[in-house]
Structure formats: structure tokens, C-alpha cells
């Protein structure tokens, strides 16, 4: 087994362990929430007998550990269980189907925003580093910072006002469903994607700029100058390949945010993503749905960080090739 | 010299530097001429303006510096007046540069071959195929192993001496008229240095390339240079053909550089052992670093440990300092077994053994004042506080010949030699019985080295401390050590009192080390090469 492969297997193992710990924390946290699905559904006036009967029907009267292990075992086999909501028997909805549409929407929006934001941020960061301390640099820095400093909902409303109401370029609502076609979906998701782009642009751009500039004083960059390399080539060929590690970390951090943190944007644009689903499920104490959403977020974070580690290793010859 | 023979001419060159809020003049009016194919050695101490002069010959100044006067003429071109784009086109084509530390001057992200051919291919001077063949040919001429495949490696995969030669190959790619060598062998072991010097000299002579060879080592420069210029405080104080300069230096400062180190401490042969290694072995992971290491350090003695990088001498220091556990054998200190790792040692033992590291830059906390750094062991071991502590710090500074004004300064305000004195003062603050010195004089100029060695000897006479002095430089330990250990590949190949080790018969490895130390004699390298040729 190559050292690279061994490192990946080790990281996969630790990722699995992390997920196990996270799953128990999710379960424990939800157990500690005051009130249950029964109270939330039956209301404050429900008699204790009614609540107990309701809980028994859902199997909530059994010990927490048993329910955790059952849930874990099922989740490991890809079965996320059934939602409490929607009555009893066959009417109760399977969480996997409930979530899959929402998850598709969330990934669609995240991918859309990432494809806009990452190339733009890298280009801005690289050019700002190339022309550092110029007017261009200052304008890029200040405007991206301003965008990140404003609350997401405010950015969203400004975009709606400018692009949807004044210029009429896009719709203000992003109400998509399973029947929406790909290009229609793309059009409707444009405003939320732009909002998310503005939110993460500054992170990536500033990290790119800073990690490039921090390397400009290194001896190999001076050597490149003394070899008569063009300034743009110095940045692209001599600096950037050594600057990836922090840039990859921040990109992954932002990708995770796009998937699990876009709830405000989803609410503003009435976009049916997984964030909204989770918020709704928490307020109605629909625990299986909340657990499933939280677990998906955890898998996303762990998976993306694993990807970041692997990519960082790939971009560093000192880790890839033994001395 | 006919005007057309002159490749590079500087007249009245002035360069300003900007540091810590004020402008200082680094180069103060230098006149210099370099003929085609001539090798001019530039020698001087740190801060004399050597590197600035070398870079100026490429029309380059470092960030914060600027040309303030004079002119530089390179083959009829005005190197100061021309545009950045014009300068850029000269660099890497007609003027090339070989940096001091090849390890940091090669880009870690690219293969050596790609970096070697980069400029020639970018400029369209050679097609990629021509450039690759050219590079392989140069690798071969520079005696690099497996020249066909050598360039496929990354910088971290080859040794420092090889990298320095690869960098010379990179500089030669475009067959430049002028190469600037900025201390290319300073970071190398003596035995490696000989090989690099030899290949550089042969290649440059063969191609008739002119060179500015910058160094602080007179012996090194006298092997290569046709003429030598001596720089002090940004001025050329003396310039003459090499043999004339060596035989008959005229300026006082030049003579002080020439002065052979006159340290001669009488050899001590008594003293109870304070530190004893008995059959010690140690490893890093699965690779064995030390085998069968046995030696004594007598009280109040100066024990030198010499060897090349990778010989295990720093590993010995790490074991004594409690940074690395041993895997076999035993170590005793003051008659008692010494615990392996520093966390298992009691405070008294920690106090009695102090370590002074090679790089004073990185071993002093940059945000602590000198007073805080030296005061810390005083608080820790003796509970001194406030004024009491400060007055003791001032005493220690005085012992290191530094004034009380250093109390409130930060490390960044100090020169390399001053930082190393602070580093030693901090070790002395604990009033130790044994100080482990790991290459403490390596990065320093000859004169500064000598001053620090004198200080160490004086402290020993006053306080009876023992030194375990680790160095790659035979010269350093020659006049002052009582005992000497010669290490090679994790073993002690020879040990004994100084007079024994330095007098024949030598162990073959000791012989090689001694022979590799450059001598201030223009024929030394020739003789060494001739001796190598006749087995």
C-alpha cells in the first residue's frame, strides 16, 4: 500500500469514528430538548394519558439507548426511518423520500453558488495579490468585505430590489418543486446563488490574496525574479502551487456552509432546501427528520474535510514523494 | 584593460536601505570593474553590503532598498536607468544568479528539471527538447548522479550539495556572460564544499563566464578568484589580484581578516567525568541514528564533537538535552543515571544542563525583551523577581560584553552575533555545570565567531562550566577543545585529547575532514584535486 493510500484509509477510519461520536451527540441533544412530538402535536391541554398513549404508538416509551442503537443500525444501512408527522400507519412518510428532493435542491443551489463564487474569488484574489496595494486591490478588498459584513437577508433583499423589482431580470421567489426543469430551476435559483456568492466571496478571495502575499518574500520567489520570470507567471507558477493548503481549507469550509448554513437565504427566497426542512422539523419536534438532517450535515462536513486533506496532500510534492 | 574587455562597470554606486523606520546607506560609493571571463571575489562580513552589491550587478534591489547614486554599466547597457521589462529580459539570459541556500531558493512545488529549463524555454532561447538535453549535459558536467533522470526529482529529495550544483546548472543554461554567486557553499559541509567549489570553478573557466563570487570565507574565494575585492561598511577598502592580496594585504581591515585565529587554550587532561555515555543507541522511528556511542565529558572541560550533517552529532545534543530517548546503553550525569526525557528530570538536573541552539533567531521568543528572555531562568530556578532579577540580567549581559541598554530591546533589534550572546547569557543564567552548544557559531562571521569562542573560554575559567561543543567546522575546535569526538554515520570514529586527534596518524575519515578545510592558499584546491587523482 502506498503511503498516500494508507493515509487516506487512516483518515477514512477516523472520519467514521467522528461520525459515530457526532451521531450520539445529535441523539443526546435532541433527547434533552424540552417537550416532545406528542406535546407539540396534541397541544398544552393534552392529558398525560393521551401523551403517554401517543408516545407508546411512536415507540417513544422505550429507553433512549435502545432507540439510539435502532436508529444508528438503520441509518448505517441507509434507512433514515419515517417521519412522525402525517398521522399513523401508511400515511407516515418515509424520511428518505421526504429529504431527497430537498437535498437535491440544496446541493443544486450550493453547486450553483460554488461554481460562481470559487473561480471569481480565486481570480480576484490572484489579481489583487499581483497588483497589491493598488487602487484595484483596495476596491476589491473593501467591496468584498462590505458584502460579507452585511447580513445575508439584507443582501438578499437588496438583490431582489435591484434585479427582480427594478430591472426585472429574475423572479423574487424561488419556489421550485420536483416538476421544475433544469434550466427553469437554474433561473429560479439565480438570486439565492448570487446572495450566497456574495457571502463567501470575501473569505476565499482574501485567503487567496493573503496566502500568496505571505509567500512573496520567500527565497524561491526572489530566485524566480532573478531568473527574469514574468510577474504574472511568478504568481501563477511559483507562488500559487505552494499556497493551496490554506485556500483549500477555506473553500471547503465555505462549501460546508453552502450546504448546511443556507437556511436564511432559503427562507427569504422561499427555496425548498434542507435547511428549511430542518427548522420546521425542530419546531414540530419531528425528531427522526431533525436527526436525519443533522446526520447529513455531519457527513457533509466530515466528507468535505477529508477531501480537503487529500487535496492538500496532492498539491504538496513533499507529502506525495518521499525524500 | 581595454574598454571593450570590460563587461561590468560600477562607478560611485550608492544604495539605500529602509529598516526600522529610518534610511541607512548600505552601499556607499563603490567603483568596480569586471572584465569578460574574469572571476572577482567579493569578501566581507555580514552587513558589509556584499549581497546588495551582487544583486545590483543584476540591476536588482530588495524591497525597501533603492539606488541613490552612481551608475552600473553592463556591456554598454545602463542597468539602473533601463526599464523593469528590459532588466527582466537580461536576467536569467545574460546575467544569472546562484543563491546562498539552494534548498530554499528552489521552488518546492516543481521538479528540478522544470525549474532548470524554465527561463530558456519561456524566452524561446531553446526549444523544450534542446533545453532538456542541455540541462542533462550540465548535470553531467557538474558530476550529479544519474544525470539523465536527475531532474525528475523534487528539491526535497536531494542533498544540499547536489542542489547547489543543480542551481549552478540552472544559471549556466543560457550561457550567460555573468554569474553572481552569493555564498554558494556557505551552508555546506566541508567535504561537500570541496566538490561544489571544484565543479563550479571548472565549469565557469570552461565556458569563459565572468563571475562575482561573494563569500565571507577568504580560503574559499582564493581558490577561484582572479582578483579579490574586500568590502567593509559598504565601501571597497582594497582590491587586488588574488596572489598579491594574499601575500601582501595593505589595508588594516584586510589584515584583520587574514589573521589566523589565535585562540590557543592549554589542553586540560584532568577532571572527574560529569557526563558519561555508555554504549548509547538511538533511532528516529525505524532509522538508526546512533550506534555504540561511549564517551566522557570531564568537569570544566571543552569537548568538541565534529562531523558532517547526518553524522549524528545533533542527536547526541538532543539526548543530553532530554529531547530524544535512547534505545540502548546508559547516560549518567554527575555520577547518577540521567532520565531520558526532560519531563522526567527534576528541576535541579534541568538547571545543571543547558542547551544553546544553532539558530539564535528562532530560539529566542521574538516578542519578549532581552530582559524577559534572560530573566526567565532566573525566576524559574532562583525565584528572583523585579529589580533583583534585572540587576542579575545586567550582570549576565556585562559578562557577554553587552550593555544594560539591551535589557529592554527586542531580538529583532540585535545582530546575529548579539543574539547568540543573549542565547548564551540565558543558558548561563541557570548557572549550569554543562552547556550543550549546537553549532552556535555556524552562521557567524570569522571575527564574531572568535569573539564568542573567547567569551565561552573566559566563562569556563571563571565558573568551571563544561561544554559539549557540536560543530561541523574543524577550525573552530582546533585551538580550544580539550577532547574531541569525530563522528561519522552515527558512530564515533575517533576520540581523544585534542593533541592526539590533531596529530597523525589520523583515522581515514578524520584525515578527509582535515584535508577538506580550505586553506588560504590559491593552490590548495589544485593540490587536493591532484592528490585525489593519484590514489
From TrEMBL, chain A:
One of its GO terms (biological process) is transmembrane transport. Coiled coil: none annotated. Residues 103-308 form the ABC transmembrane type-1 domain. It is found in: Cell membrane. It comes from the Bacteria. The keyword Transport applies. GO terms for cellular component: plasma membrane. Belongs to the binding-protein-dependent transport system permease family. This is ABC transporter permease. It comes from Pseudaminobacter soli (ex Zhang et al. 2022).
UniProtKB/TrEMBL annotation, chain B:
One of its GO terms (cellular component) is plasma membrane. GO terms for biological process: peptide transport. It is a peripheral membrane protein. It is found in: Cell inner membrane. It holds the Pfam family ABC_tran. Residues 1-258, 275-514 form the ABC transporter domain. One of its GO terms (molecular function) is ATP binding. It comes from the Bacteria. Keywords: ATP-binding, Cell membrane, Membrane, Nucleotide-binding, Transport. InterPro entries: AAA+_ATPase, ABC_Ni/Peptide_Import, ABC_transporter-like_ATP-bd, ABC_transporter-like_CS, Oligopep_ABC_C, P-loop_NTPase. Belongs to the ABC transporter superfamily. This is ABC transporter ATP-binding protein. It comes from Pseudaminobacter soli (ex Zhang et al. 2022).
Amino acid at each position: 500500500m502506498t503511503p498516500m493510500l494508507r493515509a487516506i484509509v487512516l483518515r477514512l477510519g477516523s472520519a467514521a469514528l467522528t461520525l459515530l461520536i457526532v451521531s450520539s451527540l445529535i441523539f443526546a441533544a435532541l433527547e434533552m430538548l424540552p417537550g416532545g412530538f406528542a406535546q407539540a402535536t396534541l397541544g398544552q391541554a393534552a392529558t398525560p394519558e393521551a401523551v403517554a398513549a401517543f408516545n407508546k404508538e411512536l415507540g417513544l416509551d422505550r429507553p433512549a439507548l435502545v432507540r439510539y442503537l435502532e436508529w444508528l443500525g438503520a441509518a448505517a444501512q441507509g434507512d433514515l426511518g419515517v417521519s412522525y408527522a402525517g398521522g399513523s400507519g401508511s400515511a407516515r412518510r418515509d424520511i428518505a423520500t421526504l429529504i431527497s428532493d430537498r437535498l437535491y435542491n440544496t446541493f443544486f443551489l450550493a453547486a450553483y453558488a460554488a461554481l460562481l463564487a470559487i473561480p471569481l474569488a480565486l481570480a480576484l484574489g490572484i489579481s489583487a495579490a499581483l497588483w497589491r496595494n493598488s487602487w484595484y486591490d483596495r476596491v476589491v478588498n473593501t467591496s468584498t468585505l462590505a458584502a460579507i459584513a452585511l447580513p445575508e437577508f439584507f443582501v438578499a433583499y437588496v438583490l431582489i430590489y435591484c434585479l427582480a423589482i427594478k430591472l426585472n431580470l429574475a423572479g423574487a421567489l424561488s419556489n421550485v418543486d420536483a416538476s421544475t426543469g433544469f434550466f427553469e430551476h437554474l433561473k429560479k435559483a439565480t438570486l439565492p446563488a448570487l446572495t450566497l456568492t456574495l457571502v463567501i466571496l470575501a473569505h476565499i478571495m482574501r485567503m487567496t490574496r493573503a496566502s500568496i502575499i505571505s509567500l512573496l518574500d520567500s527565497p524561491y520567489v526572489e530566485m524566480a525574479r532573478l531568473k527574469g520570470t514574468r510577474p504574472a507567471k511568478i504568481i501563477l507558477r511559483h507562488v500559487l502551487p505552494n499556497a493551496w493548503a490554506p485556500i483549500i481549507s477555506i473553500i471547503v469550509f465555505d462549501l460546508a456552509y453552502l450546504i448546511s448554513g443556507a437556511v436564511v437565504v432559503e427562507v427569504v427566497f422561499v427555496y425548498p432546501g434542507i435547511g428549511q426542512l430542518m427548522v420546521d422539523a425542530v419546531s414540530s419536534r419531528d425528531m427522526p427528520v431533525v436527526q436525519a438532517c443533522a446526520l447529513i450535515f455531519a457527513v457533509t462536513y466530515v466528507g468535505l474535510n477529508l477531501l480537503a486533506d487529500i487535496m492538500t496532500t496532492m498539491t504538496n510534492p513533499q507529502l506525495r514523494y518521499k525524500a | 584593460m581595454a574598454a571593450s574587455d570590460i563587461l561590468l562597470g560600477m562607478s560611485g554606486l550608492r544604495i539605500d536601505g529602509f529598516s526600522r523606520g529610518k534610511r541607512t546607506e548600505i552601499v556607499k560609493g563603490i567603483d568596480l570593474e569586471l572584465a569578460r571571463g574574469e572571476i572577482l571575489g567579493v569578501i566581507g562580513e555580514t552587513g558589509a553590503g556584499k549581497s546588495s552589491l551582487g544583486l545590483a550587478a543584476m540591476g536588482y534591489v530588495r524591497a525597501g532598498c533603492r539606488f541613490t547614486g552612481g551608475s552600473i554599466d553592463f556591456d554598454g547597457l545602463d542597468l539602473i536607468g533601463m526599464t523593469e521589462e528590459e532588466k527582466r529580459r537580461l536576467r536569467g539570459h545574460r546575467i544569472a544568479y546562484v543563491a546562498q541556500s539552494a534548498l530554499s531558493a528552489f521552488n518546492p512545488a516543481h521538479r528540478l528539471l522544470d525549474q532548470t529549463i524554465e527561463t530558456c524555454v519561456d524566452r524561446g532561447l531553446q526549444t523544450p527538447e534542446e533545453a532538456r538535453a542541455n540541462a542533462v549535459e550540465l548535470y553531467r558536467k557538474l558530476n550529479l548522479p544519474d544525470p539523465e533522470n536527475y531532474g525528475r526529482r523534487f528539491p526535497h529529495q536531494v542533498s544540499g550539495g547536489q542542489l547547489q550544483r543543480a542551481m549552478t546548472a540552472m544559471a549556466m543554461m543560457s550561457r550567460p556572460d555573468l554569474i553572481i554567486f552569493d555564498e554558494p557553499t556557505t551552508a555546506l559541509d566541508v567535504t561537500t564544499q570541496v566538490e561544489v567549489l571544484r565543479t563550479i570553478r571548472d565549469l565557469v573557466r570552461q565556458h569563459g563566464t565572468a563571475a562575482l563570487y561573494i563569500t565571507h570565507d577568504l580560503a574559499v574565494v582564493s581558490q577561484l578568484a582572479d582578483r579579490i575585492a574586500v568590502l567593509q561598511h559598504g565601501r571597497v577598502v582594497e582590491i587586488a589580484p588574488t596572489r598579491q592580496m594574499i601575500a601582501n594585504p595593505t589595508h588594516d581591515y584586510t589584515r584583520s581578516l587574514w589573521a589566523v585565529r589565535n585562540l590557543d587554550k592549554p589542553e586540560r587532561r584532568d577532571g572527574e567525568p560529569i557526563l558519561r555515555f555508555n554504549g548509547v543507541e538511538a533511532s528516529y522511528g525505524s532509522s538508526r541514528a546512533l550506534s555504540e556511542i561511549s564517551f566522557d565529558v570531564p568537569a570544566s572541560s571543552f569537548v568538541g564533537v565534529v562531523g558532517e550533517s547526518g553524522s549524528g552529532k545533533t542527536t547526541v545534543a538532543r539526548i543530553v538535552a532530554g529531547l530524544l530517548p535512547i534505545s540502548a546503553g546508559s547516560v549518567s550525569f554527575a555520577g547518577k543515571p540521567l532520565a531520558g526525557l526532560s519531563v522526567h528530570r527534576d528541576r535541579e538536573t534541568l538547571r545543571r544542563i543547558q542547551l544553546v541552539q544553532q539558530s539564535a533567531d528562532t530560539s529566542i521568543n521574538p516578542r519578549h525583551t532581552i530582559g524577559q528572555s534572560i530573566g526567565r531562568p532566573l525566576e524559574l530556578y532562583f525565584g528572583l523577581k523585579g529589580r533583583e532579577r534585572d540587576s542579575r540580567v545586567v550582570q549576565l549581559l556585562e559578562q557577554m560584553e553587552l550593555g544594560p541598554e539591551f535589557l529592554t530591546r527586542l531580538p529583532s533589534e540585535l545582530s546575529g552575533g548579539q543574539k547568540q550572546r543573549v542565547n548564551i547569557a540565558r543558558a548561563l543564567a541557570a548557572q549550569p555545570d554543562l552547556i550543550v552548544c549546537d553549532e552556535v557559531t555556524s552562521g557567524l562571521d570569522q571575527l564574531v565567531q572568535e569573539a564568542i569562542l573567547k567569551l565561552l573560554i573566559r566563562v569556563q575559567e571563571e565558573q568551571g562550566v563544561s561544554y559539549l561543543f557540536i560543530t561541523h567546522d574543524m577550525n573552530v575546535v582546533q585551538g580550544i577543545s580539550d577532547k574531541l569526538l569525530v563522528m561519522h554515520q552515527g558512530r564515533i570514529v575517533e576520540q581523544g585529547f585534542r593533541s592526539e586527534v590533531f596529530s597523525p596518524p589520523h583515522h581515514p575519515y578524520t584525515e578527509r575532514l582535515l584535508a577538506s578545510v580550505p586553506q588560504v592558499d590559491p593552490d590548495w584546491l589544485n593540490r587536493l584535486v591532484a592528490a585525489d587523482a593519484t590514489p
